[in-house]
Specification:
The complex is a heterodimer of chains A (about 280) and B (about 325). Chain A has about 280 residues and is mainly alpha-helical. Chain A has one domain (about 1-275): ABC transporter involved in vitamin B12 uptake, BtuC (Orthogonal Bundle). Helix content of chain A is about 75%, strand content about 5%. Chain A contains 11 helices and 2 strands, in the order ααααββααααααα. Chain A has a two-stranded antiparallel ribbon with strand order 1-2. In chain A, a hairpin with a 2-residue loop joins strand 1 and strand 2. Chain A is globular and about 60 Å long. The two termini of chain B are about 25 Å apart. Chain B has a domain at about 40-255. Chain B is globular. Helices cover about 70% and strands about 0% of the residues of chain B. In chain B, helix 6 (about 75-90) runs antiparallel to helix 7, helix 13 (about 255-270) packs across helix 14 (about 275-295) and helix 14 (about 275-295) runs antiparallel to helix 15. Chain B has helices at about 1-5, 15-20, 25-35, 35-40, 45-65, 75-90, 95-120, 125-145, 145-150, 175-195, 200-210, 220-245, 255-270, 275-295, 300-315, 315-330. The interface between A and B is large, with 44 and 46 residues.
Chain lengths: ~280, ~325
């Protein structure tokens, strides 16, 4: 039982890491960004390439995955997404699905369609026993990273100057402009923060879920579920939703394997019917 | 909508609706030209029937998305249910395609009616996610009940008899295309009549402002339920035609990919115009056929690029772009 809770929570944290960037871009900036998982995939490929080709240690590739995804996100925001902030939901959906398609084909072109091998360093593989519960080191690592990021994000948004600027620019663009905020720059940084987080999440996720060009579509659904169930613009909401989904999925697969993923989808529809704005959503 | 204001002669509502229902010469030319593949490209009739099916599916999505403003990224639920209904029933001795088509329409319509009570209550992201959730649940259900659906291996043993007892589905797809085209055309006629009726105008009102419509005596929820059910019926028929013309049904008919594809086709062509879905599915499927011929692995890239360009430079889809061009051309001459 405790083992399932631990594994489920770790899986939830994996989903959280993948989707926390989306609660920034979709949640706060209100941009329907279906290409989020593509940035995650990019981060994953950055990590794999650096480890395989250049022999970097795993931990050193994580910041690189963040930075490269953030830079790519910034460039795309500048030339593509910025022009679409005021477009309809539908146009944003279509544009970002187009980006997903291009990223899948691009990844297949550069890295091929095979599963990428991910070899973890020794200190992150294996497991140990605590009170009869089998604790996998990597899962513990994921949980720690996720908790750190949650604290950084919530704290950063609430108490720093940049966080206040983001909240101002998102809440009321015209007012923020009137007060002399460079809204375009803030949005650009916010978007690259979201993309960077996606890249980091992807880099961390691949050791558990593998990496091939299908990643961009396969995990898109999960990150959308986490963000919509948690409530837009709420980091804490995404955290709760991701843990809930992770634990339910793990427990469901353990106790009622014949139901498969059915349970998660049912839960999502149920929660959204109960609270259309998500668990912690305000709108 | 801009195009509604340029029919200047329409003073009374009745005249206005009548003027909209009149057939344009271009429309007649278009429908006649759908017969051309029989003569010009007889080797591509299979592709042509795929296009007709996709167009039917896109029209069904257009009814709810283009006219009533319900964004669905799980519309494959009804398509897939129709396909599975037609496939499964055919295993138990009912092989007449038309009967199967009606059965699929009924089953999909029933699910559409049942889910419409949920759909009509939500908007925005919650709605998008609920439509997706329903489709994913159906996918899982089909995956798990492999004794009925064949699960991941696909449905085995579909037996489709000759159409109306006489026309066999041949290898070249002659019957398939003719059948898909007839179903498409009939459904199109119904939809065309529907959107130019007062009901159709009400739907557009709901799309623009669902809160105000009840104030002028048009209950939004009830109308959304109606159109959603109709759209589900048509999507089910499209699925059934696919199952019959290809004699295969796999889990892919319920997949997210299919929902995304149809959305792309519709927006590519232009939503809210009926012909947009048809044009979009022609362009999308022909492009896919050509690109995958050149380079089978990377055709997705070009489709993606096409979508990005359409959104950034042709906000109303290909059809919207064409309309703009013709207006500009007319203004000059």
């Amino acid at each position: 039982m405790a083992g399932i809770l631990f594994d489920g929570f770790a899986y939830g944290m994996l989903l959280f890491l993948l989707s926390v960037g989306l609660s920034v871009t979709l949640g706060m900036m209100n941009f329907i960004n279906l290409s989020h998982a593509s940035f995650g995939m990019l981060g994953g490929y950055v990590t794999v390439t650096l480890m395989q080709q250049l022999g970097w240690p795993f931990l050193a590739t994580l910041p690189a995955a963040f930075v490269i995804s953030a830079l790519v996100g910034m460039v795309m925001e500048r030339f593509m997404f910025r022009r679409m902030y005021r477009a309809t939901d539908l146009d944003q959906t279509l544009l970002t699905i187009g980006v997903v398609f291009m990223s899948i084909a691009g990844a297949a072109y550069i890295w091929g369609t095979v599963q990428q091998p991910v070899v973890m360093p020794d200190y992150l593989s294996g497991s140990f026993l605590v009170g009869g519960v089998n604790i996998a080191r990597y899962r513990l690592f994921l949980i720690v990273v996720a908790l750190v990021i949650t604290l950084l994000m919530i704290g950063g948004l609430e108490w720093t100057r940049f966080g206040a600027q983001i909240r101002a620019a998102v809440d009321n663009q015209r007012m923020a402009r009137g007060l002399g905020l460079d809204v375009d720059r803030t949005f650009s940084l916010t978007f690259s923060l979201g993309s960077g987080l996606a890249g980091l999440g992807g880099a961390l996720a691949i050791a558990m879920v593998g990496l091939d060009p299908g990643f961009a579509f396969a995990y898109l659904i999960y990150v959308l579920i986490v963000v919509s169930v948690g409530g837009l613009a709420s980091i804490w909401g995404s955290f709760v939703a991701a843990s809930l989904l992770g634990i339910c999925d793990m427990a469901g697969k353990y106790y009622v394997p014949q139901l498969g993923s059915f349970l998660i989808y049912l839960m999502m529809v149920g929660i959204l019917m109960w609270r259309p704005a998500g668990l912690f959503g305000k709108r | 909508m801009a195009s509604e204001s340029d029919s200047g002669a329409a003073f009374s509502p009745r005249n206005f609706l009548a003027s909209r229902t009149r057939w344009h010469a271009l429309e007649i030319v278009f429908w006649l030209s759908t017969l051309l593949p029989f003569v010009l490209v007889p080797d591509y009739l299979q592709l042509a029937s795929q296009i007709a099916i996709a167009a039917l599916f896109a029209i069904s999505l257009d009814l709810i998305l283009g006219f009533a403003g319900i964004v669905s990224i799980g519309h494959a639920a009804y398509f897939g249910l129709g396909a599975y209904t037609a496939g499964i029933v055919s295993k138990y001795g009912v092989s007449e395609p038309v009967v199967l088509l009606v059965l699929a329409a009924i089953v999909s319509g029933t699910l559409g009616y049942a889910t419409s009570f949920i759909i009509s209550r939500f908007r925005h992201l919650a709605l998008i996610m609920i439509t997706l959730g329903i489709c994913l649940m159906l996918y899982e259900a089909a995956n798990l009940t492999s004794w009925l659906t064949g699960g991941a291996d696909g449905l085995q043993g579909i037996k489709i008899g000759p159409l109306l007892g006489t026309f066999k589905f041949d290898l070249y797809g002659k019957t398939a295309y003719a059948y898909a085209l007839v179903v498409l055309f009939l459904c199109f006629l119904v939809c065309r009549r529907l959107i130019h009726s007062p009901f159709g105008l009400t739907l557009r009102g709901i799309r623009e402002n669902p809160v105000r419509m009840p104030a002028i005596g048009a209950p939004s929820d009830a109308h959304i339920r109606k159109i959603y059910t109709i759209a589900a019926v048509i999507a089910g028929m499209a699925g059934a035609v696919l199952a019959q013309t290809t004699s295969t049904v796999s889990l892919e008919v319920l997949g997210f990919q299919r929902s995304a594809d149809v959305l792309v086709m519709l927006i590519l062509g232009g939503a809210g115009k009926l012909y947009g879905g048809i044009l979009g599915s022609i362009v999308y499927l022909v492009a896919r056929d050509q690109f995958s011929g050149i380079n089978p692995q990377y055709w997705y890239f070009w489709i993606g690029l096409m979508m990005v360009l359409v959104v950034m430079y042709l906000p109303n889809g290909l059809l919207g772009g064409l309309e703009k061009l013709t207006r500009r051309w007319r203004a000059k001459s």
